[in-house]
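Section 3.1: Structural characterization of target chains.
Under the original work plan, the team committed to producing a structural model for every single-chain target entering the pipeline before any wet-lab resources were allocated. The record below documents one such target. The sequence was received from the expression subgroup and is listed exactly as submitted; it comprises 277 residues.
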Amino acid sequence: MVLRRKKPLHETAGSGPLLKLENLVKIYDTGAIKVLGLKKINLTVDRGEFVAIMGHSGSGKSTLMNILGCLDRPTLGHYYLDGVDVAEMTPDELSDIRNRKIGFVFQSFNLISRTSALKNVELPMTYARVPKAKRVERAHMLLERVGLGARQDHMPNELSGGQRQRVAIARALANEPPLILADEPTGNLDTASSIEIMELFRQLHKEGATVVVVTHEEDIAAFADRVIRFSDGQVQSDTLNTHHPGGGPDDRVEDMLKVEDMLKVEDILKEEAEDAD
């Protein structure tokens, strides 16, 4: 049940922060007990920011992600997306907002298995009733942008995990949404592919996209400019990553690559030892 609340004046779409949460509360009512998922969250994300949201299991980060993605509604408070309060929208209105305003990237890719990379990228534009010629042209352009132009006719099972996630990112960009929302986007990837995907997010951010990544990995959060940590349904800390201990994102990339190289060397040594036997 979503409780009614007194609505303040709306901000104009396209002005002010892209995301704004005011006294946002989420209560899960199981019948026997009520569980407080989020406790009076006040938070803004400006246009063009690259933000990582972190927290352990049960911290509230997944609940927040569902609300930011308009997959769930708050019990109390306000959530402004692109200047519009979406907290009391109907399911159909939220579906329209998701298609127009949010580009989703999921841990499990969520590609349609029997459909080509090109058709997967076209899908959000099909829902938005974009003419076929225009959506094919844009889907091809987006796959080129993520380095997969030559693989547009491949099925997902013909692509590596990193390539499938690139297709998912291209699909997220299809309708030019103001928000890219990524939920554990590297969770199913190896180190090298994780670096490639996070570098792609950084490039999109440099080009002006607003990127919010939900992750539990410190190395992945290091790519973001701002890290928001959740605990027990509340914001525990909200810090800039400019002076992150141990170096910035570029240093973390170098460290991750060193680890990857060491693992490859270990594999080679094991193979040589087996051949010697």
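Confidence is low (pLDDT under 50) at residues 1-12, 244-249, 256-260.
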